[in-house]
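Dear colleagues,

As part of the handover before I leave the project, I'm documenting each prediction I ran so the next person doesn't have to rerun anything. This entry is a single chain, and its sequence is reproduced below.
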Amino acid sequence: MRSRILLFLLVVFQSNWLFGQSLTLEYVDQYIKMSQPEMEFGDREKLYVVDGIPYDGVGIESKLVKYNLDDKFISIDYFFSDSISTTVFKPNLLIVLIHKASPLKLKDKKEELHRVREVFLNVSEFPAFMINDKLLGIEEARRSISVLKPRNIDHVIVNKHAPLSIYGANAKYGLIRIWTKN
């Protein structure tokens, strides 16, 4: 009997360790609040869009379970409907986008890299920039981008908002994350 209990506990421990912690609605909401601490989110109604499918909070938890917090290719972004058009969306609505990046085709890699280079050449407010989960300074990011080849890119995620407390002051201008093939 004791061996069965130990075996059961071992299986539970391994499954939690192997699968990691699932993404939760609480984590997503906390991520949004951390993104722009000076911004007032108030009691806005939220619409969650997971992999292109909208949810108003009902049934969202069961959809988030498939995401693992340890997965580096999860993207969480948001925008306010009143910044787009109040005729299409309800006013006072916060739209949260959650998706997992898929590997890019070479054509898409070229386009993404071109977009990232444009950002670093043409703007005065630089976003936070990471390559392979390493946060880089502006000059180091410019050097890295200038020598980066599209075929060496695995994934690119561009978030318009990212938590300042995690990614630094430049994250108020967005976050660009690139993973290369190593």
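The chain has a mean pLDDT of 78. The beta strands are 45-50, 53-55, 74-80, 93-100, 128-131, 134-136, 153-159, 175-180.

All the best with the project,
I.
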